[in-house]
């Protein structure tokens, strides 16, 4: 049974009284007396059946007893320090051996094994517990230490020693044993048999005879089994003569006798005694029936209250000088409880202990009360283990009361320790591990040195046994145990505890982790393990406070002077790998860098001092290792020989961060990567840092989006190649420019290497940066052919070779299109004679400001047929006069017959020009868009579309000056691409690659305005205003219907991913609502008549109205005239009501108007507001309505009425 440990501590004690002859016989076998020999057989009775007071049958797997010599019952307490000394001598050695080193938080794969080991009792705690159980001094207050039986031998001439102790119960079980020494008396048992008959006639049937010493020579099996049993119970023996004359038959005979004595004598005696004492107690206490166990605890709530009973109880205690005589009610109740313990009747025992405890409290018997409380809490805990309905809160209160009472007694420390250990064990059986840990911690307060540390460490195990484990409490408890081990000089045990706490706190990065490492370093230093101490000190250098950093650094320097350190790693890297890279030949050249053999290149290291104190390093070394083309280190390869140039000692202030450039030369060709950086810290400790670095995060594919995937890093890679040519790039450009200005840019290239740079190709960005062309070569054109797609690819040109030591000048022209900071990027690709490719890169920033601001407004002309006019507002922000040389109108659909006289704009002045726009035929650009949409939604490749022509109208008189944009369609497309891309991104929610392929570079009804200007110092420019929408696109209805079908809701199609179909449907919805693909209502009403004369008033006036169709399609119209619509800004004033017919149905041709005369009633001369119109408009396709509009609007006209003369 699991409760056998408690019953070993509370086992029935049997006093052994022997004669000197018997002890002399036993001493031949290496033991001091016969009781010591019998202790080896205390476990002999197994599977013993007992009966409780309720007549319940219980089987005890182990029924331990305790054999003690009569001298052990002298009644003297052993001092606590004597017990501790006896405990610490064997515990010190055994605690180090076979010690379970279990982590606080195991790894996932070790959790099952860890959970199994954490529930087992460590060997060192078993030894401590055994010492507590074996130490049983006999006192009046602790009745469990009193004997329940005695063994007498015929040679005994001593008197009854129990007469000295009046508190002992005289009703003991007395057994008599006759010992026959075969070695002296021979094997003839006839005389022994006669003597045995006489003893039985005299003393009764509780007699037995044992024959020992029948062995002629020592038996190894006898010696091993006997030594193991004696060592388990802490019995001293002489190893040289142990079991010298004992045979196997002797051991079997002694074992059989002990079992027979327990089963046939002791257990029946205990059962009879329970019934007898139960009847006596029931007769003396009020309210009890014959069935004592059927009563509740209320029956024992108080002592009898009558005067006679109280006087009797007090007299019982005082008559024996404060001791309870065996016949007293309290002694009988306590004896009943003790007997119930022996028979495993925990409920009866707990009730009786609580009842007698209340008696002791009434009599103010502190030690008696503490002993009763100890037994009550242990028994109730065992009962809770058997019956989980029991509450643990009241049990813990009993325990605390017992320990508190023991602590006040002069000799109560040992009892407090025993109470705590047994109570904790009982709570462990009931899975109340937190209460068990509290008991161990409370017991440590009454002990000292090693035993205290052992108890605290066992509390750590108890916290780990909880569900879930209390890891934080266990770690703190283990820290206390480590400090206690260190205080009593147990360095190895303290190291094991600190190792487990450091492993737990390592992932939490708190000060307790530093504390554990520092203590481990000090202990390793005390043990002379300097290398281990250094290993524990280095992780402390991560920066906490100036005082702690200085303390750790001083300790590190002291230990390092005696250690033999290898390369170590700091917890916080000194070099920030993310900011470290190999500097390319050009500062912004792409990676990996390229260098020639023995050619110096620069490694830029970001150095940061992690401490709050000064830092010093020297002997800096960079280790390069071979790598593949992706930058991954080759496995199993040796480092590349590299020459590193450093400046000796580097000192850093507290928390300082700086960049350090190190020049390196590598002789062997191939790809190499910076693998490690090593240095010596403070002239003593070599430190190594691995330069592991990840590339940019990849998130293109769905798999890369779901899991973190990084590209290979090449910033720390260097490619050593032979015959590496070098190109040095520099730029000659103005410091500031104007938007629209043509800026001359000169790129200078020089080759400082010894190898020719061939196959040169220059790539420029932004795209409006290209090769310079003279104005004489440019000629203006009235027609430009624009590509379909608006590409923003950088410009690329081929350049001649550059020989070693030569220079080359490249003249470029840049059309500035964007205000703010513009970045000019130049990339030159080159090759050597071996065919290896290289690149040189240069970036330059130039700020740009707006010089000429151009804005436009579109309005319908006051004509019968629909026509548009454009107002052009030009504002100069120059500080000097600005000459406007020429204006040009660029559009696929619109022309302008207007002639504008160009003039000069004063500083910060504004001028407005009016242009009339005429419509011309434009290409149908809808069908190519439909083809692209159908291919995209079907998952096919997008088709390529042909270019189309746009007209360029020069508005100035005479021959226009040369225009670079007006003469070069490619440059014109690149210059307007910036505005076109911004327009598409703002109104179309689709990928930019799709919008470029789907929408043309210029819409059919777009109008671009090109303004050429010149500053007095000769700086020229062309300001381009793009994307002014005029009217409605001239598209066929069939193409528009096909576009509607392509953007409509389509049936689900098979897709590789479900989100692909969802994305396409969202794209359809977004494109259906985009303004680029929407057509406004193409209807307006123009009032031709605004003044009339009437002979008399009131009279009817006729008003001529023109219904205008602004679309390229016939428009079916149903219109009626209504009263004015009130608005907040323009409330209805005096208006002329409509008279006559107010309804009209007609069809208006494309780009035409329909004239109608309407009639209004004028009451007299004056100004009248005309009413409003309400129209229902329809555009049909193949006889079916394609677009339908319904609108109402006030007529934007006033009618003036005069009386005719």
At a glance:
By secondary structure, the protein is α+β, with helices and mostly antiparallel strands. Among the domains are: 3-70 and 145-267, no CATH class; 577-696 and 710-720, Immunoglobulin-like, CATH 2.60.40; 850-961 and 980-1076, Immunoglobulin-like, CATH 2.60.40; 1083-1203, Immunoglobulins (Immunoglobulin-like, Sandwich), CATH 2.60.40.10. Helix content is 33%, strand content 27%.
Envelope shape: elongated
Alpha-carbon distance between the two ends:
135 Å
Count of beta strands = 49
**Helix run count:** 30
CATH C-level of the domain at 850-961 and 980-1076: Mainly Beta
Mean of pLDDT? 82
Question: What share of the residues lie within helices?
Answer: 25-40%
CATH third-level topology of the domain at 850-961 and 980-1076: Immunoglobulin-like
The fraction of residues in strands falls at 25-35%
pLDDT < 50 runs, ≥5 residues: 92-98, 153-161, 287-320
Rounded radius of gyration (Å)? 54 Å
Main β-sheet, in a few words? 6 strands, mixed
Task: Give me the CATH architecture of the domain at 850-961 and 980-1076, please.
Answer: Sandwich
Q: Which class of secondary structure composition applies to the elements?
A: alpha+beta
Please tell me about this protein's structure.
- With 1205 residues, the protein is α+β, with helices and mostly antiparallel strands.
- It contains 30 helices and 49 strands.
- The strands form twelve sheets. Strands 9, 11, 13, 15, 16 and 19 form a six-stranded mixed β-sheet that branches. Strands 25, 32, 34, 36, 37 and 38 form a six-stranded antiparallel β-sheet that branches. A five-stranded parallel β-sheet has the order 4-1-5-6-7, sandwiched between helices.
- A hairpin with a 5-residue loop joins strand 28 (820-831) and strand 29.
- The model is unreliable at 92-98, 153-161 and 287-320 (pLDDT under 50).
């Amino acid at each position: 049974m699991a409760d056998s440990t408690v019953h070993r501590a509370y086992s029935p004690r049997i006093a052994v009284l022997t004669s000197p002859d018997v002890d002399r016989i036993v001493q031949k076998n290496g033991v001091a007396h016969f009781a010591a020999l019998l202790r080896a057989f205390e476990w002999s009775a197994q599977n013993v059946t007992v009966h409780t007071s309720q007549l319940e049958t219980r089987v005890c797997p182990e029924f331990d007893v305790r054999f003690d010599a009569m001298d052990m019952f002298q009644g003297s307490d052993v001092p606590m320090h004597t017990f501790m000394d006896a405990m610490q001598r064997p515990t010190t050695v055994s605690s180090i051996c076979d010690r379970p080193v279990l982590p606080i938080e195991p790894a996932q794969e070790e959790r099952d094994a860890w959970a199994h080991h954490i529930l087992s009792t460590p060997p060192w705690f078993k030894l401590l517990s055994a010492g507590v159980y074996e130490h049983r001094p006999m006192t009046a207050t602790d009745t469990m230490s009193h004997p329940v039986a005695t063994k007498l031998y015929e040679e005994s001439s001593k008197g009854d020693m129990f007469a000295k102790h009046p508190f002992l119960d005289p009703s003991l079980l007395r057994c008599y044993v006759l010992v026959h020494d075969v070695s002296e008396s021979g094997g003839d048992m006839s005389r022994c048999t006669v003597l045995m008959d006489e003893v039985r006639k005299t003393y009764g049937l509780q007699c037995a005879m044992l024959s020992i010493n029948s062995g002629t020579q020592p038996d190894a099996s006898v010696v091993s089994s006997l030594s193991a049993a004696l060592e388990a119970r802490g019995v001293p023996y002489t190893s040289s003569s142990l079991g010298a004359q004992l045979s196997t038959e002797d051991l079997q005979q002694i074992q059989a006798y002990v079992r027979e004595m327990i089963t046939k004598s002791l257990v029946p005696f205990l059962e009879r005694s329970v019934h007898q004492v139960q009847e006596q107690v029931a007769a003396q206490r009020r309210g009890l029936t014959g069935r004592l166990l059927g009563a509740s605890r209320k029956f024992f709530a108080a002592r009898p209250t009558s005067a006679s009973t109280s006087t009797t109880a007090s007299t019982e205690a005082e008559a024996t000088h404060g001791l309870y005589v065996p016949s007293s009610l309290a002694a009988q109740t306590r004896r009943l409880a003790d007997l119930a313990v022996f028979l495993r009747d925990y409920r009866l025992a707990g009730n009786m202990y609580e009842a007698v405890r209340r008696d002791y409290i009434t009599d103010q018997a502190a030690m008696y009360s503490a002993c009763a409380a100890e037994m009550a809490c242990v028994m109730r805990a065992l009962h809770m283990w058997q019956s989980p309905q029991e509450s643990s809160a009241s049990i813990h209160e009993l325990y605390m009361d017992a320990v508190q009472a023991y602590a006040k007694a002069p000799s109560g420390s040992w009892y407090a320790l025993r109470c705590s250990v047994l109570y904790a064990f009982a709570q462990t059986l009931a899975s109340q591990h937190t209460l068990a840990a509290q008991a161990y911690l409370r017991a440590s307060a009454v002990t000292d040195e090693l035993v205290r540390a052992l108890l605290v460490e066992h509390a750590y195990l108890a916290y780990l046994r909880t569900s879930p484990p209390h890891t934080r409490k266990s770690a703190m408890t283990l820290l206390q145990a480590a400090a206690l081990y260190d205080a009593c000089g147990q360095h190895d045990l303290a190291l094991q505890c600190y190792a487990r706490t450091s492993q737990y706190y390592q992932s939490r990065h708190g000060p307790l982790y530093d504390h554990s490492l520092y203590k481990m370093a000090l202990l390793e230093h005390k043990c002379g393990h300097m290398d281990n101490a250094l290993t524990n000190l280095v992780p402390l250098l991560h920066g906490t406070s100036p005082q702690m950093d200085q303390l750790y650094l001083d300790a590190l320097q002291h230990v390092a002077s005696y250690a033999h350190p290898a390369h170590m790693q700091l917890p916080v890297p000194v070099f920030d790998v993310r900011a470290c890279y190999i500097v390319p030949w050009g500062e912004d050249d792409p990676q990996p860098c390229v260098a020639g053999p023995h050619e110096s290149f620069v490694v830029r290291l970001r150095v940061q001092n992690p401490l709050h104190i000064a830092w010093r390093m020297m002997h800096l070394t960079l280790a390069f290792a071979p790598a593949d083309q992706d930058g991954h280190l080759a496995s199993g390869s040796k480092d590349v020989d590299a020459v590193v140039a450093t400046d000796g000692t580097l000192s850093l202030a507290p928390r300082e961060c700086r960049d350090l450039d190190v020049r390196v030369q590598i002789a062997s060709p191939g790809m190499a990567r910076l693998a490690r950086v090593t240095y010596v810290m403070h002239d003593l400790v070599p430190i190594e840092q691995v330069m592991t670095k990840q590339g940019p995060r990849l998130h293109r594919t769905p798999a890369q989006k779901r899991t973190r995937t990084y590209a290979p890093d090449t910033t720390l890679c260097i490619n050593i190649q032979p015959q590496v040519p070098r190109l040095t790039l520099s730029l000659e450009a103005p410091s500031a420019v104007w938007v629209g200005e043509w800026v001359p840019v000169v790129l200078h290239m020089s080759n400082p290497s010894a190898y020719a740079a061939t196959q040169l190709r220059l790539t420029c960005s932004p795209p409006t940066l290209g090769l310079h062309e003279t104005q004489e070569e440019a000629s203006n054109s009235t027609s430009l052919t624009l590509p379909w797609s608006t590409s923003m690819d950088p410009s690329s040109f081929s350049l001649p070779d550059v020989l070693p030591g030569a220079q080359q000048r490249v003249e470029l022209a840049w059309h500035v299109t964007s205000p703010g900071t513009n970045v000019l990027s130049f990339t030159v690709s080159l090759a050597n004679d071996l065919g290896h490719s290289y690149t040189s890169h240069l970036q330059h920033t130039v700020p740009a400001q707006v010089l000429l601001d151009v804005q436009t407004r579109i309005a319908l002309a006051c004509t019968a047929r629909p026509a548009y006019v454009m107002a052009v507002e030009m504002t100069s922000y120059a500080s000097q006069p600005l000459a406007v040389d020429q204006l040009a109108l660029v559009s696929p659909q619109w022309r302008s017959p207007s002639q504008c006289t160009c003039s000069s704009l004063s500083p910060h002045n504004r001028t407005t020009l009016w242009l009339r726009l005429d419509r011309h035929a434009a290409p149908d650009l809808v069908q190519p868009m439909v083809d692209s949409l159908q291919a995209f939604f079907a998952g096919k490749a997008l088709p390529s579309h042909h270019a189309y022509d746009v007209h360029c109208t020069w508005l100035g008189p005479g021959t226009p000056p040369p225009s670079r944009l007006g003469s070069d369609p490619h440059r014109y497309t690149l210059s307007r691409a910036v505005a076109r891309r911004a327009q598409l991104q703002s109104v179309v929610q689709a990928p930019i690659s799709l919008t470029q392929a789907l929408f043309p570079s210029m819409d059919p009804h777009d109008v671009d305005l090109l303004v050429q200007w010149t500053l007095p110092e000769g700086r020229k420019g062309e300001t381009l205003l793009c994307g002014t929408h005029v009217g409605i696109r001239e598209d066929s209805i069939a193409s528009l219907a096909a576009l509607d079908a392509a953007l409509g809701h389509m049936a689900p199609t098979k897709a590789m991913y479900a989100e692909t179909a969802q994305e396409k449907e969202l794209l359809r919805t977004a494109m259906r609502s985009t303004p680029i693909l929407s057509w406004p209502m193409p209807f307006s009403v123009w009032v031709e008549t605004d003044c009339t004369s009437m002979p008399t008033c009131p009279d009817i006036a006729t008003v001529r109205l023109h219904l205008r169709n602004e679309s390229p399609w016939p428009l079916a119209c149903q219109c009626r005239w209504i009263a004015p619509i009130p608005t907040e800004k323009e409330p209805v004033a005096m208006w002329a009501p409509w008279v006559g017919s107010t309804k009209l149905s007609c069809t208006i041709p494309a780009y035409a108007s329909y004239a109608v005369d309407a009639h209004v009633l004028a009451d007299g001369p004056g100004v009248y507001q005309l009413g409003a119109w309400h129209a229902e408009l329809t555009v049909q396709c193949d006889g079916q309505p394609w677009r339908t509009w319904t609108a109402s609007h006030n007529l934007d006209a006033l009618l003036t009425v005069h009386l005719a003369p």
